[in-house]
Amino acid sequence: MLVVMKPQATPEQIQAVCDQIQNLGFRPHPLPGAQRTAIGITGNQGQIERGNLEELPGVAEVIRVSKPYKLVSRDVKEENTVIHFPGTDATIGGTDLAMIAGPCSIESREQAFATAEAIAKAGAQFFRGGAYKPRTSPYAFQGLGEEALQIMAEIRERFGLRIVTEAIDSEALDLVAQYADVIQIGARNMQNYSLLRAAGRKRMPVLVKRGLSATLEELLMAAEYVMSEGNYQVILCERGIRTFTDHTRNTLDLSIVPAVKRLSHLPIIVDPSHGTGKRNKVTPLARAAVAVGADGLIVEVHNQPDMALSDGMQSIYPDQYEQLFTECSQIAGILHRNILRGIKITESVGATTSASL
Ligand code: PEP
Ligand code: MN
Known about the structure:
Blueprint: E1 2-5, H1 11-23, E2 27-32, E3 37-42, H2 50-54, E4 59-63, E5 83-84, E6 91-92, E7 98-102, H3 109-122, E8 126-128, H4 146-159, E9 162-166, H5 170-179, E10 182-185, H6 193-200, E11 206-209, H7 216-228, E12 234-238, H8 256-263, E13 268-270, H9 272-276, H10 279-291, E14 296-300, H11 318-334
Parallel strand pairs: 7-8, 7-14, 8-9, 9-10, 10-11, 11-12, 12-13
Antiparallel strand pairs: 1-3, 1-4, 2-3, 5-6
Helix pairs in contact: 3-4, 3-11, 6-7, 10-11
This protein binds phosphoenolpyruvate (PEP) and manganese (II) ion.
Residues 104, 274, 300, 310-311 line the site of manganese (II) ion.
């Protein structure tokens, strides 16, 4: 159910509707838009009585949302969600595309710094790096854990780059939330509902990667889990799905980008690294992702890919990233979008961003 407030509704009237929803045993989600505020209603106690709310002052109408996903839906919020990173000019979901790059795993201070320096020089605004790695084999490199988070905090300090890193479980989540700017939920965890809920209780952006065999609706439902906890700063990510194709590691399903844009106000970025698994295919698919309307790219870059402890085959060299960046900027321009070169730090703030839509 969705309560649409009148454009002239006062903050007190919005609050009164929220209080009433709460009194009825449901959770209100006020979602301010350009024209008016809508209040999403979630809860698992069955249906709410429409008449209880329709008569309240400031209410325009009460609508039943028929889709299984509510808060992620464009029916609830027409305008695109734009996520801001306080103290910087970086955004995700606005006119500017978010450029996120870095190694699959943080392997050492030297490796991380060398790569971060290169991607900052190329113009990226965000640094990615795994501290906790979800590996198919328990004997493969599992990540440096908190030490890697500390290295990334230093990179943030040194280059201004905002940090994106994965939380593989709720234990890692608390630490990741302390150090990072964006919590990544990996493909293998896209349906780990307790982890999604826990990320929803953090008040910072969450990047939800599409599961290896997840449908569009399942991806949106994963985002709904995060939002249902009151965290509206969610970014979706297409990273390739399993098909019978064997010339790439996964099949990058770029058609999901316009499909998401029709159904949801959330930003969607593309990962052409896991999406192809092959270094020579990363840049062509990155270009295609921008052309299809992605809100950003997350790309694996390594200063010495042949020495990488994870995903070396799909990691591109720093000079290749520079070229990718330039080409994608040109394509973005044709579509009246823009890629900022580098991150501007406007003020010094703590590691986390505030919750806002
Ligand atoms: C990663 O980003 O390094 C990663 C493990 O991604 P995914 O969850 O998409 O496999
Ligand atoms: Mn990887």
